[in-house]
Amino acid sequence: MPDLKPDPMPDPMSGPMSGPRRGPGPGPRPEAWSEAWSGPLPDPTAGPAPGRTGAPGAAEAGTAADAVPTLGRGLARLVERAVRCAPDSCGASTTAFTDEEPEPCTAATHPDLSALVAAQLEAGEGPVPEALGSGAPATAEDLLHDHRWPRYRARALDAGLRSSATLVFRRDALDLTLTVYGFRPGCLDAPCRGAAEELGDLAASGFDRDRRYRAALAEVDQLDTALRRRPAVDQARGIVMCVLGCDADEALAVLRRHSQHANLRLADVADTVIATRGQGLERALGRV
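User: That's the sequence. What structure does it adopt?
Assistant: Structure tokens below.
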């Protein structure tokens, strides 16, 4: 059984995959590829993000957001369950593309499979790019005789893989692919792909729901911050009214123009006005 610790991702299409070389024979047992690994494709060996630090209040403020599973953890669970739902498969990988992240997020049951996904995205060749482009499944019944994706075929056979099936699921701001692999040709039959399709569809809906929930939490946090800073803006507006002898609307307009001119947030401008109590600001505010 090979070491399950993630190996550094190789340069896609430039050399042999990580781990021992395997011919197109039976390969290692499926149990050898059963540990899920997840992370962004450019840095698959990066460790988990550091824990939350800071004052207790900051930790309490993040409780609601922390309760939502991260995309990486969700993808790791997805590939683990995909292998269980497809008993004839030897491993699985999944990749998520969202508007929130500049790079795709991937998870796989073995680092070799993560490298295989990275190689496809780098070269734009393979079942994952084809499924993303067409919106339809991309299946290879026997890679030994399937020549559609030469680079993918070579790397997959080098890893001992003979078959694969890639499914794609689309939501509003999410594109999700799920690929199951087999050590034997033709082992990924219709029932196997059907179970993976049902699982992937449920997972995509769940990821999209979590994304919407996180976005709602971020919006609520922004609104809360704005409400807490509103008294400071009102106080600064009153000071500007006294300094410039203007009405409330004009004072707010002056603060906003100064905020844009100085490239500062309105709340920061208000804090400065309050801290100086308007002293020396008549000339500065009058210029804007």
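The chain has ten helices and six strands.
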